[in-house]
Amino acid sequence: MTKDLENTLVELGPEYAGLVGRLRAAYETEGRRPQAAPRRLLFLRLFVAACLVVACGVVFLKHEAPSPRLFTSSPYTLALTSSIRAIIASQKPDGSWGNDYLTRQNAAALRAADSSGVPYKKALRYLKSKGLSPISAEELSSRILLANN
Q1: Rounded to the nearest 10 degrees, how much is the dihedral formed by the CA atoms of 65, 71, 73, 79?
Q2: C-alpha torsion sign, points 45, 47, 49, 52
Q3: Which residues contact 80 (CB under 8 A, 6 or more apart)?
Q4: Cβ atoms within 10 A of the Cβ of 119, count?
Q5: What's the pLDDT tens digit per position in 109-147?
Q6: At what angle do helices 3-12 and 15-27 cross, to 10 degrees?
Q7: What is the reported pTM?
């Protein structure tokens, strides 16, 4: 303890000396042996660790590579998978699908399915406000071919 702390302790009085002694004794390690963990507790820890390693190994070995068809639910491929209901369900109230790329693609898919529907008209209204139009039928067909390969 520093001289300044010793002076402060003297000023506080003798009743604090016992408290300071207990606090200092908690950090002293001389004469104390660290207690060894019981064998059962050690065995239990090793057993739990081994079970976790085995479980991770089983999960890793059973894991299958994702199928390319799992990615068809992406918003960028909805129009390419002929899921018109999903396209209509994901349309925003303003007639878009979040960005102009998707809106042009999905409007072309709606046009190919049924050009008289309300979702298609909303999409056209949105695209016209931006000075855009749906992609051509040929471009939609080429995107569909690329998505299916």
Answers
A1: -150
A2: negative
A3: 72, 105, 109, 143, 144, 147, 148
A4: 18
A5: 888 887 678 999 999 999 999 999 999 989 988 888 887
A6: 140
A7: 0.49
